[in-house]
Design brief:
Helix content: 25-40%
CATH topology: Purple Acid Phosphatase, chain A, domain 2
Strand content: 15-25%
CATH superfamily: Metallo-dependent phosphatases
CATH class: Alpha Beta
Number of domains: 1
Distance between the termini: 29 Å
CATH architecture: 4-Layer Sandwich
Number of strands: 12
Radius of gyration: 18 Å
Number of helices: 9
Order of helices and strands: EHEHEHHHEEHHHEEEEHEEE
Structural class: alpha/beta
Low-confidence stretches: none
Shape: globular
Strand order of the largest sheet: 3-2-1-11-12
């Protein structure tokens, strides 16, 4: 049995299937984890979701910002004045209900004790422990799945504030911050505020912004932190090992590769054009 973690697929169904073939994935004995952003931007988001769902219990995924966007388009399209996406094939599909049910049962984060890794789409907010992150992911999932008014719930989520965890007062603010941290985080400022405007590579960030995994107040974790989301991120293998962080988004949507990590021996697999 082997365990694989795949970065942002973003609707590239054929590359996803080629990647599975590349490492001879066997759903009867192997495990597959997906780092979120299964959909949008690529040519076949609907087909991607169908392939993922066919894998049954062998696959687990966390939500990325594009997956949350799809949930919001379904439950609360009024949030967006001019929505930009290429997911109409999903929204008009006859199996839309089963797709939404699949996505809304997916957490923001997963901790796997067998292989000792923590997976979320954007990483782990540096002032959280793994235990805190997992608790907050569970809280989001409980609140969302049990909500009788998902339109109202998601409408309350699509805001950028509070920017700092220590500014969160209400449960709604804590859940919103958790969603933003787990699905959108890249840079923080020195006092720990999430800053979403900067998305580029880390060699020349503006305004003294800091990649979340380099923040001086970051709590070190024993589990490996595995994430996607940041296609322009380029950090050395040495820094990955030192900081125990392993990015899996290698920019398939920007003519890069689709990437998987086999956690058992830390071997990487890639497919390109």
């Amino acid at each position: 049995m082997a365990t694989y973690i795949v970065g942002d697929i973003q609707g590239f169904r054929q590359k996803f299937l080629r990647l599975l073939k590349n490492f001879n994935f066997d759903p009867s004995k192997d495990r597959l984890f997906l780092a979120g952003d299964l959909v949008n931007r690529g040519p076949d988001s609907l087909g991607t979701l169908r392939e993922v769902m066919k894998l049954g219990s062998s696959v687990s995924c966390v939500l990325g910002n594009h997956d949350v966007y799809l949930l919001a388009l379904y439950y609360a399209p009024e949030i967006f004045d001019k929505p930009k996406h290429n997911m109409m094939d999903i929204l008009s599909s006859p199996d839309l209900t089963s797709i939404i049910n699949f996505l809304q049962k997916s957490p923001l984060a997963i901790y796997d004790k067998n292989d000792n890794f923590f997976l979320s789409h954007a990483g782990l907010y540096p002032m959280w422990t793994v235990e805190e992150g997992l608790m907050l992911s569970n809280k989001w999932l409980d609140k969302f799945t049990s909500s009788n008014n998902k339109k109202k719930f998601l409408t309350e989520m699509f805001l950028n504030h509070p920017e700092n965890w220590h500014e969160c007062k209400s449960d709604v603010e804590k859940i919103r911050f958790s969603l933003n941290a787990f699905t959108r985080m890249r840079y923080l400022n020195p006092v720990g505020e999430l800053k979403f405007s900067e998305k580029g590579p880390i060699n020349n960030p503006r305004d003294n912004l800091i990649p979340w995994f380099r923040h001086e107040n970051r709590i070190r974790t024993k589990p490996k932190i595995i994430f996607g989301h940041w296609s322009s991120l380029d950090i050395s293998k040495e820094e990955q090992s030192k900081k125990n962080v392993f990015p899996t988004d290698t920019g398939v949507v920007w003519n890069g590769t689709l990437t998987a990590l086999r956690i058992d021996d830390m071997k990487w697999f890639h497919v390109d054009d």
